[in-house]
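Entry for the shared binder. Reason: the reviewer on the internal report wants the predicted structure included alongside the sequence.
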Amino acid sequence: MASKSYKIGPIARPSLGNDSVMSVAYTHRLAIATSVAEPEIHSDDKHLAASLRSLGVETTACIWNDPAVDWASFEAVLIRSIWDYFKHYASFKQWLAQLPVPTINNRELLLWNSDKRYLIELEKHGVPIIPTQVVSASQLRGTLAAMPGHEVVIKPTVSGTAWHTVRGVAGEPAFDLIVAQLPPEFDYLVQPYVPEVARDGEWSLLFFDGEYSHAVIKRPKAGDYRVQSDFGGVSQLADPGADLLASARRILEAAAAIGHADVAYARIDGVISQGRFLLMELEMIEPFLHLGNRADASERFAANLVKRLVNSAGGIR
């Protein structure tokens, strides 16, 4: 990929710990894909953006489904806070297909990862997951009838941030009523509720270009099962240990065996149950990367992204 020089006026770099003002001639232009709900670069990605600018990359926040954006004016699109894509899934797939420039992660990976059926595929490649059934909305009633008294979690195969996600006991009338109100046009995952999430927390391990970076444990607020901050969940940096890290690496190896070896960023979410790490989600589209307290991780990720921009053979497609 040929480099271009974009002449930009003096900019300040306070987020990098430098109060001086310097003149930067940007050599690359990178769009940061955001959403209507989060139109600017998210606070967790601020140091990443500042690090990119310090390395000669002009970063511009662009709402992914804004028709006014000239995507061709950028060298690539870094997918970040597009946290509503699953609500506009057909438009999202059309947007990816029509983009005139590469995406990071690459669009083949984004499409594969956008439907949670990938969990079943990973399980076939030896990845332990929470036991999962995939059923249509019309099959939910019969599926639950076959497992009375079991506590379950139901979520659409295309979803995020606990959207249309419900938890309850199969066969209980109140839960049956909730399930009956789920949108009929979706397919759903039906999984047993795993109490270890609330008791011990959910692990998230972050990888950049296949290299482990850092990890957090996420815990729901008391009485809830959802670990997202939107619902009161909290997270803290943690050391996963050698065994857990090895399990996470095997998940990436399985994804590579399926055909997705080029992964600029990934977040592996799971829970330890009965001594095994069970994959809950492999987030490769728009994961919250927990960079806020890890400036070093932001800077490593930025350096990796620059390499991809400089050399298209590094994996940008």
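Summary line for the report: Residues 6-104 form a domain with the Rossmann fold fold (CATH 3.40.50).
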